[in-house]
Amino acid sequence: MAKPLRLQQGQIWKQGEQFLRIVRLERLAVEYKLTSNLAPRGGKSVQVTKKEFCRLIKNAELQPAPPAPAPRAVGPE
After folding, report:
1. Domain map (residue ranges) of the chain
2. How do residues 30-77 score in pLDDT, each as one tens digit?
3. Buried b vs exposed e over 28-67: b needs ≥16 C-beta within 10 Å?
């Protein structure tokens, strides 16, 4: 049996040619941005229940997380 996925803020799902990025995740609601590319800004903001969002991403692919930025060196003060 497949391991269940947990929704997390910042996840990006691809459904067809559309990308859905979770902006805000609450107990019963999800706010996501709907875009046609992976640009960090822009897109249409949509708020739905968590149940509706899960139905929406049923056939979608979870995109790999972008690499974390390298830590900056802290010099002596």
Report:
1. 12-62
2. 999 999 988 777 888 999 999 999 999 999 999 987 777 777 877 776
3. eebbbbebeeeeeeebeeeeeeeeebeebbeeeeeeeeee
